[in-house]
Amino acid sequence: MWLQRMEQKNGSSFTGFILLGFSDRPQLELVLFVVLLIFYLFTLLGNTTIIALSYLDPHLHTPMYFFLSNLSFLDLCYTTSTVPQLLVHLRTADKSISFSGCVVQLFVFLGLGCTECILLGVMAFDRYAAICKPLQYTMIMHPRLCALMASASWFIGFGNTSLQTMLIFIVPLCGRNKIDHFLCEIPALLKLACVDTTVYESEMFFASVIILLVPVTLIIFCYGQIISAVLRIKSSGGQRKAFGTCGSHITVVSLFYGTAIYAYLQPSNNYSQDQGKFISLFYTIVTPMVNPVVYTLRNKNVMGAMKKVLWMGQDSR
Fold first, then answer.
1. Could you tell me if 248 and 301 are in contact, meaning their C-beta atoms sit under 8 angstroms apart?
2. Contact status, residue 71 vs residue 316, Cβ threshold 8 Å
3. Which of 112, 133, 144, 217 is the most exposed place for a label (fewest CB within 10 A)?
């Protein structure tokens, strides 16, 4: 019912949107199709591997890998919410998406992105507890608390997104339906508005600040404490192990938050559609693909679990 009312509000004959994507660069579309398809396949393979290993190897039944498998599942959904459609649009002349399809895509894509912001903060707290409170770690990071924090990440992420999705689709568009982007994203949708969007932009900016900067503040605090604790470790081997574990998380955090802050926390008059498209490509497909690579290559436990599973498969033959 809400979708029908919004559709009627934005024009009686309104049928959907046209995602212009990269249609102004036809020579680039084939290259993008091949590159994105390869990246997407690696994303599926890498994140599925992390989830499977975390489930199959008892040594990985720890809070760190519980959150990591949550992150991998989230990245699978995050990428799949946009990339398959983008691949189809890159190879066909039809770039349309229905009004309800656009609403659903924005809700799922933004909800998963907000959830990842919070989950990365939770993962930083887990590393803080492991390194700064090692004797109390198992008591602090109890399985029920881990499940509660993971569930809260999803609940808060999609709760915030429900509000933002409703706000963005009550903005009058006056029949405008050509989105200069490859997905239904808030900055691009606001460009279609036929009224002053200052109030809407302020509301979106405030919500983005909370979702992005609160977890960032938690991450900075946790890693400030971690660095201080690691520097007090007398063993150089212990320092390398601690920094190695945390280095993976810092890399992922830097990639994700850097691009998200650029996309959502800059003034709309400075927002470049072309830059926005390529930045969105980065956190839509590159970051989810890089996450399992970073955690796998820099983590001996994951590499050991992978070898163990592969050997078991060979032995069973």
1. no
2. no
3. 144
